[in-house]
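User: Quick sanity check before I run a bigger batch. Here is a single chain. Can you write out its predicted 3D structure?
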Amino acid sequence: MEPTGGLPRWAEKDQIAWVEWQVAEAIDAENGACRLLVGKSLGTLACGSAAERSLPAVWLTPLLTSSHVVDSLRRTTAPTLLVGGSADDMWDPQIADSLPHAVHEVPAADHALELPGDVAGSIDVLQRVMSRLDQFLGEIPTPPSQGRLKAYPSDKT
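Assistant: Done. Predicted structure follows.
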């Protein structure tokens, strides 16, 4: 780690190792019941874990500037949804479109999936992202005994 502005800055390989360790601990604690990974920003460094375990995943604002993330997404065969904003420096629409995954790009949204200076528009973005997430979850094949994955657990449909 090298300090920058008083805060430690980890090398990318250390960030990847830490995120993957945290995710592996969480998945293992579920004793085989984990059916989906969801990560945002640095959490998308866990793409390798999803690929290795063939877990469906939703990656919000994935770090498409990281070769680790892109390479992991290229080898992922499980259903995967990528959500990013066109104004996010970490999002690369050409890379996203080159991957064999569902992509939801939000025009003018930043890395927080917000429209700077537009509160109402940002709330609309959140609604659209959640709707797309719910649609994606409905497309993931699941055994009848487990039921459909839902973005809104109280939804009875």
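The domain at 9-139 is CATH 3.40.50.1820 (Rossmann fold).

User: Great, the batch can go ahead then.
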